[in-house]
Amino acid sequence: MKLPSLLFGICAIYIPYVNAESVEINMTNEKLSAASSSIPSSSTILPVVLAPQTDAVVVEPLPKVTEQIDQSHLPIDFQNRIKEANNGKIDAMIDVGVAYLDGAEFLEADEKKAYYWFKKASDLNSTDGDYYIGMLAQRKNDYEQASNWYRKCAEKGDAYCQYAMGYLYERGLGVPKDYKQARAWYFEAAEQDQEYAQFAIGLFYHDGLGGDVDYAKAYTWYERSAQNGVASAVNNLAVMYENGEGMEKDDESAIYLYREAANMGSSIAQKNMGDFYQKGHPLIEKNSYQAVYWYKRAANQGELGAQYALGQAYEKGDGVGQDLAEAFAWYQLAADNESAEAAMRVAEFYEKGLGGVKQDMAKAIQWYMELAESDITAAQLKMADLYLSGQLKNVDIQQIVKWLQMTEKDNMEAKNQLAIFYLTGTGVAQDSQKARELLETAAFKENSDAQNNLGVMYARGEGGTKNIFRAIMWFERADALGNITAKNNLKLLQEESATKGSMLQYTESVKNSVSTQLVH
């Protein structure tokens, strides 16, 4: 099959790359790679019946057109290919269709004409024609029709179409999501040496999708894919060596393979190399300049983790001259690629007016709100903080309380904020005992604001028994963590023997919450 660079790129996009942090499948993988030889018979996947689609109807996604153009301006070679195509030569039909698919210097793109030639080839039983018609349908997000065309050629044994069917089943596009069917189709293609299918099978074995985890088989398939030039497979082999998955840990081999994959063009491997240089490693001396070099290579390929890392480098001046405007540009790019961390930084730049960005609180809140609604905990806490500080108007306070209630179990800051809501009766019924319980848990986890506020509650006897000695203990612990309010409270108790609990101060967030309640 003659895949132009564009279509090859589309296939490559489908590959769920992995990274040097963790191992997962489906766009969230973080590290995997290695080398092996031919697959022994014991490595084959248990047979899965490839589900027929008896009710599938293959339709024509685009109307037929007739090839009637002025060919005088076209290169002689292309004119000859059109003549061969008109004379029934299938390869020529595909070549002409591909030229129309995305255009060329001498030819405007025309999907209708591309379809015309692919359909002519398909009518002559060409699997390439079926494949490209499936691609055209997929471009229009018509995955059901794409699956029909891919299935047509996959059942004829075309490896690219089998890979495409695996991809659709893996993600539930146009067909029910079914890991077993996905793995079966990937395996059919991988057995024909389709390199990306081999990579996908490796991932499925690695993560146990559609079957059991089997590191030995994952290694075998990654190696076959790597030998066929897939940089991501080399990267994933490195992950296996680094993590000791199915083998002894071997950092030297892992780093060698990461570097190989990075030089082959794997953006994840390049980001991984950047991380090694940024954080340091027993086998790699910390070097911020080298880190920035690798981050840039990865970021320019759209790797959002590297884009965020570059933003941090420019913001801190680490390995590159400090440049907040450039930092914002990289954060914005990573945020556009759905990096929540980067989006939080973009929001903060708007909030504080950093890097030449005009301060715009409304825009910052819009960013925070969108992130909070996407279940980003940091953004939800920020929304609560903005509300408690009186900077957030016309907001659904019940939603903020709900966010805090969902995250407080594992997040001490959420506990502290929720305690303030209960203490002041903000968005919930006032409950000093509940507030004290929440503050106690957060205080023991070294949250200094919680420690100070708990100290005040003990001194005043709010939410439970009064105990000035416990109050002093919590003020001392908060003071040790640098909490200024606690420091002042402690000083007052030490210098004024007649100090009353009412004279001790809660943190600003509590006082602001009380003020907000009075306003409402």
Structure description:
The chain is mostly helical and 520 residues long. The protein folds into two domains: 5-37 and 63-286, Tetratricopeptide repeat domain (Serine Threonine Protein Phosphatase 5, Tetratricopeptide repeat), CATH 1.25.40; 406-519, Alpha Horseshoe (Serine Threonine Protein Phosphatase 5, Tetratricopeptide repeat). 62% of the residues lie in helices and 0% in strands. It has helices at residues 5-13, 76-86, 90-102, 111-123, 127-139, 143-154, 159-171, 179-190, 195-207, 215-227, 231-243, 251-264, 267-279, 288-299, 304-316, 324-336, 340-352, 361-373, 377-388, 397-407, 412-424, 432-444, 448-460, 468-480, 484-495, 508-519. Helix 3 (90-102) packs antiparallel against helix 4, helix 20 (397-407) crosses helix 21 and helix 21 (412-424) runs antiparallel to helix 22. The radius of gyration is 30 Å and the shape is elongated. Mean pLDDT is 86; it is low at 1-59 and 62-67.
